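Q: For a teaching session next week I want to show students how multiple molecules come together into a single three-dimensional assembly. I've collected the sequence lines for a complex. Could you give me the predicted structure tokens for the whole thing so I can convert them for display?
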Amino acid sequence: MLTQFTPLSALLGGAFLGFAALLLLIGNGKIAGISGITSKAINPKHAKSWHWSFVLGLIVGPLLLPLSRFELPQNFDSSWLAIIVGGFLVGLGSVIGSGCTSGHGVCGIGRFSKRSIIATITFMFTAVVVVFLRQHFAISL
Amino acid sequence: MPTVIAFIAGLLFSFGLVISQMVNPSKVINFLNITGTWDPSLAFVMLGAIAVFASGFFVLKPNKPLFNSEFDLPSKTNIDKPLIIGAVLFGLGWGITGICPGPALANISGLSPKIWGFICMMLVGMTIANKVKQHK
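A: Of course. Below is the structure for the complete assembly, covering every listed component.
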């Protein structure tokens, strides 16, 4: 599906993400990495109440925004096979690689962490290659 | 108090994902599609987020957090195999679907079965990776 370039809402939304991550850091001393928080929440050895309250906030947040202006997508282009394979790889890879778009891409780069910069370049490059191959060789999944 | 702070941070994070439309996988796929229908929005999302977080991190940084005894920051600094292998696996999944963990969770209330399926498989992947990590 085609989408419009929306630089202003992207910057504004990005600022919210950065502010949320900053609040968690200054308030609790924690990094707002969604994969790290979620994977610890479901791990009995590491689960703490703040992991679950963060996840809860993330889930209920969209319900508090005016629906007329901000709505969640209803149709997803991905096939069920792509969803199953992709979901599994996202979960597996983010925990093995110690982070995802939020932990590495925002907080890590924001701290000028070498590991996070390398990780972000690696997953972005990989994802670009995947999309390129699927576009040009009509690989369906 | 840390539980309340985390809840508010989660809320604000979801607002950011909805406002920036990163909850829409098509926006992500089009960002990654640099030789086709390229939509650079995601770069601006990261720019906004990193600018706010980095300026706060380097300017405000107090000696200790407000509601905790110390900062809990990643201690590793070396580039190791798990970092690269994990990032490649994550990039494969992200490139196939355009969905990553934050947007997946923020989409739950949209009640789309595919998002729920994605999250179930993501949790399976995370559980397996947790087990692998614990054995090392």
